[in-house]
Amino acid sequence: NITTKDVADMWVHEGFTTYSEALYVDYHYGKDAMTEYVLGHRGKIQNDKPIIGIYGVNKEGSGDMYAKGANLIHTIRQLTTDAKFKEMLRGLNKVFYHQTITSSDVEKYMSRQMGRDLSKIFDQYLRTIQIPILEYTLKGKTLSYRWTKCVNGFTMPLRIMLNNGKAAWIQPTAKWKTMVLSETMKGNSLTPDPNFYIMTQRVQRQ
């Protein structure tokens, strides 16, 4: 129902179409199957060049517009409720029905509907080839963390699991943050929610 004005924004067609497969799996087989399906696409991602191409010269971006585009959408989905996410998808088709638009139109609409500035997340995944890395240290009850390999201002929240099975949300930025874990949460390992398309690296801090 929606067409982009420039082929450079082709991810709007292909990313959402690819993600519709995940929605199908979710509906028929459940969330665990959907997560496995989305993660399976990651093996196809090359990160050879940005998803958004060069404007005004009939230049598509990377073929990652399919698998990486779908993983971007899935990552953003984690930042809200399923109901609100699906309402946003329906809203895109209603507001932009049979129009020619830009990626910027989609990005701004999604930010408004989710009540969160997603601009840096879009910049990270659409306009660079770097996958954000969560660097962290975990010593007893003290967890320190930050984002690296990210655009300026990248502050995407992240859901993590500690080795005792407890889940928690953290709010990383490019600067180190530290939090003291409760007795029920402390451990010696950390695993990000796999639904977020990121990387992690445990480091030693002086």
Keywords:
3-stranded antiparallel beta sheet; 9 strands; 4-stranded mixed beta sheet; globular; alpha/beta; 206 residues
Question: Could you explain how this protein is built, in words?
Answer:
26% of the residues are buried. With 206 residues, the protein is of the alpha/beta class. The radius of gyration is 18 Å and the shape is globular. It is built from 6 helices and 9 strands; from the N terminus they run E-H-H-H-H-E-H-H-E-E-E-E-E-E-E. A 4-stranded mixed beta sheet has the order 7-4-3-9, with no helix packed on it. Strands 6-5-8 form a 3-stranded antiparallel beta sheet, with no helix packed on it. It has a two-stranded parallel sheet with strand order 1-2. The protein is 37% helix and 19% strand. The longest helix has 19 residues.
The H-and-E topology, N to C, reads as: EHHHHEHHEEEEEEE
Radius of gyration: 18 Å
Share of helical residues: 25-40%
Number of helices: 6
Query: Which strands sit side by side, in order, in the main sheet?
Result: 7-4-3-9
Morphology: globular
How does the major sheet shape up? Answer: 4 strands, mixed
Give the uncertain stretches in residue-range form.
none
% residues in beta strands = 15-25%
What is the topology?
Layout: E1 2-4, H1 11-29, H2 31-41, H3 67-77, H4 82-95, E2 99-101, H5 103-114, H6 119-127, E3 133-139, E4 142-148, E5 158-162, E6 167-170, E7 177-180, E8 190-192, E9 199-202
Parallel strand pairs: 1-2, 3-9
Antiparallel strand pairs: 3-4, 4-7, 5-6, 5-8
